[in-house]
Design goal:
Helix content is about 25%, strand content about 35%. The protein has three helices and eight strands. Strands 1, 2, 6, 7 and 8 form a five-stranded antiparallel β-sheet that branches. Strands 3-5-4 form a three-stranded antiparallel β-sheet, with helices on one face. A hairpin with a 2-residue loop joins strand 1 and strand 2. The N terminus is likely disordered.
Length: about 160
């Protein structure tokens, strides 16, 4: 099951060539998420949108901003930490986030999450992510310079 963010007219283009999009990929009872971007930061932002899409397809209003900072020994672990920071903020604040801004400097990430409190009637949450895992974890820069970031999320 793939859920591209952009129209299907891009399906004929190799995934690594399509910057600024996300998709889901199947994995047993869990769900894989993958973000693509022209930069590492954009791939992380797109993966965050894929994470949100696991929960809801509804519009999320940018009513509140939450800042997060992550640090890890490499970019793959930084990606997992980033997703887990979002999952933590969603759970603790009972919020959904629909806009993300990321800066990555070396092995440090600063992220801005914009969203709103969960409205069960409007957002109709389909699943609650429990955590990003190391399963299918891969963050890679393609030959054309674009990036992809993927892993399986426990739901």
């Amino acid at each position: 099951m793939t859920s591209p963010q952009q129209p299907t007219d891009t399906d004929s283009i190799a995934p690594a060539m399509r910057a600024g999009r996300w998709e889901h990929f199947p994995h047993d009872a869990d769900v894989g998420i993958r973000g693509f971007g022209a930069t590492l930061a954009e791939a992380f932002e797109q993966a965050a949108l894929a994470l949100t899409a696991v929960v809801t397809q509804a519009e999320i209003k940018p009513l509140a901003v939450v800042e997060v900072t992550c640090q890890a020994p490499d970019i793959e672990l930084l990606f997992v930490d980033w997703l887990n920071a979002i999952i933590y903020e969603m759970a603790v604040r009972k919020m959904l986030f629909g806009r993300f801004a990321v800066t990555v400097e070396g092995k440090r990430l600063h992220g801005t999450l914009s969203g709103e409190p969960v409205d069960v009637m409007r957002h109709a949450p389909a699943a609650e992510p429990k955590g990003a895992t190391y399963t299918a974890l891969k963050v890679v820069q393609q030959a054309n310079g674009s990036w992809s970031a993927a892993c399986v999320v426990d739901v």
